[in-house]
Amino acid sequence: MLRHKDESRSSVPYASAPRLCGQLVVEPGHERWGRNNFMATLYDRAPGDRRVLADLFQVRIGPVDYRAMVLHGVEEEFQRRGKTRFVHWQAWAVELLDLPLRLVRMRERGEPRGKEVCAADAGLPGTLIVDHHLRGRPDMRAVFCDGDKVEEIARLHKVRLVRMAEQGIVLVGAEDLRGARDRVPRWFKQAWWLKPRALELEHQNVWMNETDDEEEPLQALTS
């Protein structure tokens, strides 16, 4: 956890920051947090135990490099036996352990490829990098490169994290498919399924559903 009661832990080195170990799940959040919001829950991995270790609400993706994925959001704190509720900004640095990830594009020129097709696609191995597209703006850009970070395989703009579980990570956004002679971008909706290395083909399942606001990244780029 990178913040404590809204205060940044920037003075604390990443390696020595407080850590929790468990299974992370990102899924649609409760409507009380707003329309089309997402929440992250860290569960204890102990056999037969589904105890919640931490929750993060209104989750949005931050920078991702070879070490970790940063998630931003808010956390709740209850005092006086649950009678007093506080909300604080929080950020998690999530270590990506099951590498390399394998990229499966879930759309072809904006059109869904279908669950069966995506599940059967082994994907391309590589490294995920997410950073700010323009300094000082909140928009995030994802780049998927080969293992040596030399050749760019794919790029996604206006990135949003919509799912994370044992089956992998799903990012949605928009991609530019302009031709060699095009002078202006040609934006299409796109979704990436980033499969972990250990995911067996017979157990693959696309659990991502379309979200009502999936048009937003495309509209923001073309407006």
Topology:
Blueprint: E1 3-4, E2 7-8, E3 23-28, E4 38-43, E5 52-64, E6 68-79, E7 84-95, E8 101-105, E9 107-108, E10 111-112, H1 115-120, E11 124-132, E12 140-145, E13 152-165, E14 168-176, E15 187-195, H2 216-222
Briefly characterize the structure.
The protein is mainly β.
Could you explain the architecture of this structure?
By secondary structure, the protein is mainly beta. It folds into 2 domains: 3-95, no CATH class; 101-222, no CATH class. The chain is built from 2 helices and 15 strands. It has helices at residues 115-120, 216-222, and strands spanning 3-4, 7-8, 23-28, 38-43, 52-64, 68-79, 84-95, 101-105, 107-108, 111-112, 124-132, 140-145, 152-165, 168-176, 187-195. The protein is globular, with a radius of gyration of 18 Å.
